[in-house]
Amino acid sequence: MAVDSLTVSVKKNSFTGFLGPNGAGKSTTLKILTNLIRASSGSALLNGVDVTKDAKGALMDVGTVVETPEFYSYLTPVETMTYLGKINGMSSESLSSKIPEILEKVKMTEWSDKRIGTFSKGMRQRIALGQALLTDPSVILLDEPTSGLDPRGMIEIREILKSLKTRDLTIFMSSHMLYEVSDLCDRIAMINHGKLLVHDTTEKIMNTAGARVVKIKVLSDLTKDVINNIESLPNVVSAEIDRGSIELKLNGGDTEQANLLKDVTALGLDVCTITNDNLESVYLDLIKESR
Question: pTM for the full model?
Fold first, then answer.
């Protein structure tokens, strides 16, 4: 799918999720940004430098994981990063201190001297994230970084990505996994058929559906009295039992949801998990309207 007059301005030091169904134009956009394909018109700026006019200058301060990462199977992570670092002009002294730091960050220190050909897909993906961070870039571009991974691999990659949010780093990540985006990203851009549908903070987008739908799983028995007590809490519109969890509608945003967790705990209920499904509702409505 080609992009159609797509304009997205990503804020510095934000973590933006790039959402859309398969074929929406997400990978095409990232391939244009990384100069893997050329746009027929328009411009693609990274840190103010146009990739279509100066690809080397635009990508100099950018780390990327686009499509399935490929490495020389006979090299180790240390050898691979040394090779890639030298291509990027890093000195041997810099690499000797930087590589152990990166391998620790992506939780691959234990396998630093093992051949990559023996690694699982999740381990290769962690090495791919490591090489993207090797040169201390200010921008990271990720194309569905957990695609094709098993549940354990997904969790490992998400934990690494969460750890990057404390750094001065701008992350732009395509995905079609709504939970992943709502869990990691502070901003969301949605596209379909190559056109931008919405671009705003995660909280604002999730609250456009009106009352927030929240699911709470507790270890306590769910009785009618429990539901009545929860319905009486501030900002709670309604509550009901749904497959062993409490599903409720809540007016407000993240602050009100945080207060809800405190109030539910104060009722003497042991909260196991709390999630919300608003992003799914907004996503489906926007995709449906754009068909």
Answer: 0.81
